[in-house]
């Protein structure tokens, strides 16, 4: 198979978890497609400053256009439909492209005027694609709602963003009972990710006399706001901000948590892979009743759901877990691991690759 992968995000030495799912797809495709050709056009890591970003996109678009116009592929696999839409739309004026779109995040529910404009540019290409890949059933339904032209489109394939690698899976052993619990949060520190809801919940739990500490990992546009809020709320002894972590460090980090907190406020949270990564470590998850997480969190089975943005409700769920006996906590842990078992990388990637091969048979 001659495969071209186009994505505007890919890990780099300085941004090791940026676009990890794209890297995992490319590496797996190259292993499975050893007798064929797998090429990649991407931007590695994030750029700081308008000039650096502009230069990166000029190079990205030029490279993509050259390959789309002058080389032939069996499949052009495109991650995201917004920033990749410009070279695709231009190339499609001159030749028919064998497109497969992997649609996720705010592709479908953009929050900026620029992304909304790019969404309109991409929209006419979607019904013409060989296949569209959605990370969850939830997001497949959102996709159909947002693009009426897909009402009769039948080839939307659900594949959960590369799945979860074997290093994440861990059958949590029984441990001594503790009066304190460790809460975990791994995410970009950005608008809508719910970090303030977590801080408010920790403050409420302290008022209730519940012994807990929270560990927050990640970075983003609101990292400084997070650090300031921890200080202003006098939570320095109870909340530890450890900054960005490498993908390799995450399995051990998830195992160190008693509970994983996923307080996203974003309807565009198409799957919420971090929640499944935490469950693979046997860590129950408390998540907002919104987006992708609402599709795999089941109350009293593998964690709890709470009303989005409601710190009191989040504190109530954490307190409920804290008061469980160790046997019930282990049952929740086992339920989390069982759920994560459906997302193992080897199985997820094989199903997706086999589906791609079926398109060119």
What would you note in describing this structure?
The strands form 2 sheets. A 6-stranded parallel beta sheet has the order 2-1-3-4-5-6, sandwiched between helices. It has a 6-stranded parallel beta sheet with strand order 9-8-7-10-11-12, sandwiched between helices. It is globular, with a radius of gyration of 21 Å. Helix 3 packs parallel to helix 4, helix 6 packs across helix 10 and helix 9 crosses helix 11. It is 39% helix and 18% strand. The model has no long low-confidence stretch (mean pLDDT 93). The protein has 361 residues and is of the alpha/beta class. It has 12 helices and 12 strands. The longest helix has 21 residues.
Give descriptors for this structure.
alpha/beta; six-stranded parallel beta sheet; 12 helices
What's the SSE blueprint?
Layout: E1 2-10, H1 20-32, E2 37-44, H2 50-70, E3 75-79, H3 85-92, E4 99-102, H4 113-122, E5 131-134, H5 137-146, E6 156-158, E7 180-186, H6 195-207, E8 211-217, H7 223-232, E9 239-243, H8 250-255, E10 259-262, H9 273-280, E11 285-288, E12 303-306, H10 311-322, H11 326-340, H12 345-360
Parallel strand pairs: 1-2, 1-3, 3-4, 4-5, 5-6, 7-8, 7-10, 8-9, 10-11, 11-12
Helix pairs in contact: 2-3, 3-4, 6-10, 9-11
Brief summary of the model shown:
This protein is α/β, with parallel strands linked by helices and 361 residues long. It is 39% helix and 18% strand.
Radius of gyration: 21 Å
- How far apart, in Å, are the first and last alpha carbons? 10 Å
Number of strands: 12
Q: Helicity range of the residues?
A: 25-40%
Structural class: alpha/beta
Strand arrangement, largest sheet? 2-1-3-4-5-6
Along the chain, the helix and strand elements come as EHEHEHEHEHEEHEHEHEHEEHHH
How much of the sequence is in beta strands? 15-25%
Main sheet attributes: strand count, strand direction, barrel closure: 6 strands, parallel
Number of helices: 12
């Amino acid at each position: 198979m001659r495969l071209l992968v186009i994505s505007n995000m890919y890990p780099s030495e300085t941004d090791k978890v940026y676009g990890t799912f794209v890297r995992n797809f490319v590496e797996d495709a190259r292993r499975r497609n050893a007798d064929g050709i797998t090429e990649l056009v991407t931007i590695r890591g994030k750029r700081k400053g308008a000039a650096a970003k502009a230069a990166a996109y000029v190079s990205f678009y030029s490279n993509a256009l050259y390959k789309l116009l002058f080389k032939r592929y069996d499949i052009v696999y495109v991650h995201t439909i917004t920033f990749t839409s410009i070279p695709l739309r231009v190339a499609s004026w001159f030749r028919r492209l064998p497109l497969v779109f992997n649609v996720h995040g705010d592709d479908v529910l953009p929050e900026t005027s620029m992304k909304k404009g790019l969404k309109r540019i991409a929209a006419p290409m979607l019904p013409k694609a060989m296949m569209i890949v959605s990370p969850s059933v939830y997001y497949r339904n959102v996709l159909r709602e947002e693009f009426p032209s897909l009402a009769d489109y039948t080839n939307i394939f659900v594949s959960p963003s590369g799945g979860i690698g074997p290093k994440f899976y861990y059958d949590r052993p029984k441990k001594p009972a503790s009066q304190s619990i460790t809460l975990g949060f791994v995410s970009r520190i950005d608008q809508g990710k719910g970090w303030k809801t977590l801080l408010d919940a920790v403050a409420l739990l302290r008022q209730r006399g519940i012994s807990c500490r929270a560990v927050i990992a990640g970075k983003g546009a609101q990292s400084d706001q997070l650090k300031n809020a921890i200080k202003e709320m006098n939570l320095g002894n109870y909340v530890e901000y450890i900054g960005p972590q490498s993908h390799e460090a995450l399995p051990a980090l998830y195992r160190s948590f008693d509970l994983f907190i996923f307080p996203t406020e974003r309807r565009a949270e198409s799957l919420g892979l971090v929640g499944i990564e935490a469950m693979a470590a046997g860590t129950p998850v408390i998540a907002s009743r919104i987006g992708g997480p609402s599709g795999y969190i089941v109350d009293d089975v593998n964690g709890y759901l709470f009303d989005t943005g409601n710190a009191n409700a989040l504190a109530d769920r954490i307190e409920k877990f804290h008061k469980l006996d160790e046997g019930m906590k282990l049952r929740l842990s086992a339920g989390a691991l069982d759920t994560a078992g459906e997302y193992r990388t080897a199985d997820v990637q094989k199903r997706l690759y086999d589906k791609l091969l079926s398109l060119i048979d």
